[in-house]
């Protein structure tokens, strides 16, 4: 048997396992690092948790605003809320109140 035929035989033996190994490595890498892999899945879960937290905070803030707005409706006018709004709009204060001045950069509303 000549040298070239031995190299040819060994090449035939090694080609198919090398191809299948490279395919396995390719799919394994994509399963972990690809667009829909394990790392991307963990990032999406973290983003989902952050968005759910933001949604919960927005719902709490919305409920607080709805409570304040409910106090200004005609059917159930809350005197405290009305007094607060009138004083804010007219820039008035009761003589017994303590007034704290803020800069323009520190707006409350």
Descriptive account of the structure:
It is a single chain. This protein is mainly alpha-helical. It has one domain. 70% of the residues lie in helices and 0% in strands. It contains three helices and no strands. The longest helix is centred in the middle third of the chain and has 33 residues. The protein is rod-shaped and about 115 Å long. The termini are far apart. The mean pLDDT is 85.
SSE pattern: HHH
| Head-to-tail CA distance between termini | 92 Å
Strand tally? 0
Percent of residues in helices comes to 55-70%
Number of helices: 3
Give the percentage of residues in beta strands.
under 5%
Largest sheet: none
| Radius of gyration based on Cα positions | 35 Å
Averaging pLDDT over every residue, what do you get?
A: 85
Give the overall shape, derived from the CA principal axes: rod-shaped
Low-confidence stretches: none
How many distinct folded domains? 1
SS-based class? mainly alpha
Describe the structure using short key phrases.
single chain, 109 residues, mainly alpha, 3 helices, 0% strand
What's the arrangement of secondary structure elements?
Layout: H1 3-33, H2 38-70, H3 79-90
Quick summary:
The chain is an all-alpha fold and 109 residues long.
């Amino acid at each position: 048997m000549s040298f070239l035929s031995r190299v040819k035989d060994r090449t035939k033996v090694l080609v198919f396992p090398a191809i299948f190994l490279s395919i396995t490595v390719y799919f394994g890498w994509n399963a972990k690092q690809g667009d829909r892999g394990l790392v991307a899945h963990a990032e999406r879960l973290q983003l989902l948790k952050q968005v759910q937290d933001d949604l919960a905070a927005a719902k709490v803030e919305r409920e607080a605003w709805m409570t304040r707005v409910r106090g200004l409706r005609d059917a159930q006018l809350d005197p405290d809320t009305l007094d607060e709004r009138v004083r804010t709009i007219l820039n008035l204060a009761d003589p017994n109140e303590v007034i704290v001045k803020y800069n323009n950069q520190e707006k409350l509303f």
